[in-house]
């Protein structure tokens, strides 16, 4: 299986101690976000976990403890955008995040970090030209520290629209998407990045932009030296190319305060949930239920040929 840690929150930034406790105890409990009464036990043993995909905007606090993942394979989806604290309230300065990105890449290798420049929105402050300029500066700074950059355009969920009130976002029509994509793709090529889109139905192949698999069986195969027998994740939207994974995070728990975030309903909901976080609990939020309170399903590795190198 592939473990996603996590689309729902930033585990490396805020819950790394809890995560390493779960690795130490070799299991985690995950609450169904659509049915709070359903809790699932997931075994975390190297023979079963083919790869861990970390999603983060600031993994600095986690880096010193990565040695605890000996025996596990993993890579990072690392988001780095041009927005300031007017949009991403509690992130460090971008220069510091870029330094963290470089240190992590030096430790793991460029192929194990995917730079995410998403979501892209446009307003008077963050104009098309500013995106081109900011992306260029970041691409130049990160050249050689990642092999690929993934972009996407903002999805206007109701909570996103509510949180972004006052930022006067402009509609990103098809023509503007092509303008932005063409500029970013040219810059990516100049800096030796492959470029793709996350869960976008717009076709941008004319610029050399493909459709991403953020949970990527091909990358996992490259990392572990063995192909996977695994299919598309049917629980994700149609435009998503990701293969099947198990996500161990929880919504309404990320403290970065990004206004565009789809995973948080409100800052007050985050603060309320965090009062119920115990780093020693098998659940990210809440205490441990009795054994009658969760189900356990046998999980297996998806490696096609165990132990055989695959190039």
What does this entry look like structurally?
This protein has 311 residues and is of the alpha/beta class. It has a single domain (2-296), classed as pyruvate-formate lyase- activating enzyme (Alpha-Beta Horseshoe), CATH 3.80.30. 27% of the residues lie in helices and 18% in strands. The protein is built from eight helices and eleven strands. The chain has helices spanning 11-14, 16-25, 94-108, 128-142, 158-163, 174-190, 217-224, 267-274, and strands at residues 2-5, 27-32, 35-43, 51-56, 74-79, 113-120, 148-153, 194-197, 210-211, 246-247, 295-296. The strands form two sheets. Strands 9-8-7-6-5-4-1-10 form an eight-stranded parallel β-sheet. Helix 4 links the parallel strand 6 and strand 7 (148-153). Helix 4 (128-142) runs parallel beside helix 6.
The secondary-structure class comes to alpha/beta
Query: Over the alpha carbons, how many angstroms does the gyration radius reach?
Result: 19 Å
CATH topology: pyruvate-formate lyase- activating enzyme
Beta fraction of the residues? 15-25%
Helix content: 25-40%
Total helical elements? 8
The tally of domains stands at 1
